[in-house]
């Protein structure tokens, strides 16, 4: 009887929250091209696509061949190389909350966030995350 109640509760939670499946995350990869901080976008997704898309709670990466048009060019000091790097970002209007960690910088706009993750080889990943229940705003 207890197992049936647990199963019924799980079905109820999943059925009551179908918008969770709309949460989207896109990841892009940038690598340094010169000593001046220029970064070049390289394929990061499956099948050689520019981006990698993850939807909902699923862990499987999907190809994302679309380019996100940047509206800011941001210069960061790469924490591993110590060099300045220029990365194009797409940020929504308004003042973001900014968090810094040892290997990343996160711009938060409510549930939506943009994260720049730095890697020891000098590259950086750029992640756009819509938060639960929303598609990315630029699709």
Polypeptide structure, described:
It is a single chain. The protein is mostly beta strands. It is 11% helix and 40% strand. The chain is built from one helix and ten strands, in the order αββββββββββ. A hairpin with a 2-residue loop joins β8 and β9. The termini are far apart. About 11% of the residues have low confidence.
**Helix percentage range:** 10-25%
General shape: globular
Order of helix and strand elements from N to C terminus: HEEEEEEEEEE
List low-pLDDT spans: 7-21
User: What is the averaged pLDDT score?
Assistant: 83
- Per DSSP E runs of 2 or more residues, the count of β-strands stands at 10
The quaternary structure here is: single chain
The biggest beta sheet is recorded as: 8 strands, antiparallel
Radius of gyration: 18 Å
- Classification by helices and strands: mainly beta
User: What is the straight-line distance between the termini?
Assistant: 45 Å
What proportion strand? 35-45%
Number of domains: 1
Tally of individual helices: 1
